[in-house]
Amino acid sequence: MKSAVIPQVRVEPEFRAELEASLREGETLSEFVESAVRDAATRRRTQAEFIARGLASRDEARRTGVYFTIAQVDEKLSGMLAKARERVFSGAK
C-alpha cells in the first residue's frame, strides 16, 4: 500500500523551536509528529472502547436489574490490585 501524507500544521516559530528542542538524538520532526498522531489515535480509540464498555455495562444492569455498590466494586478492585502487586513483587525477588 502506498503511504500518505498527513496535512501540514502551521505553528508559531517559537513552538516549532520548542518541538525541535524536545527531539531525541537522531529523531526528526516528522517522526515526532507521526508518533504523536499515532499516540493520539490510540488514546482516542481506547477512550471510545472504554465508553462503549461502560454503556454496555449500564445497559446490562438496567436489563437484569443487577447493580453493585461502590463498596463491592472497591473491594473487587482492591483484591485485583493486591494480586497484581503479589505477582510483580514475588517475581522481582
The stretches of 5 or more residues where confidence is low (pLDDT under 50) are none
- Largest sheet at a glance? none
- Helix coverage percent of residues? over 70%
Cα radius of gyration in angstroms: 22 Å
SSE succession: HHH
Number of strands: 0
- N/C terminus separation: 48 Å
> What is the average per-residue confidence, as pLDDT, rounded to a whole number?
95
Strand content: under 5%
Structural class: mainly alpha
The tally of helices reads 3
Globally, the shape reads elongated
Brief sketch in words of this structure:
The protein is mainly alpha-helical. The chain has helices spanning 13-22, 29-64, 70-92. It is 74% helix and 0% strand.
How would you characterize this protein structure?
- With 93 residues, the chain is mainly alpha-helical.
- It is 74% helix and 0% strand.
- It has 3 helices and no strands.
- The protein has helices at residues 13-22, 29-64, 70-92.
- It is elongated and about 55 Å long.
- It starts with 12 loop residues before the first helix and ends with a helix.
SSE inventory with pairings:
Elements: H1 13-22, H2 29-64, H3 70-92
Features of the shown structure:
93 residues, mainly alpha, 74% helix, elongated
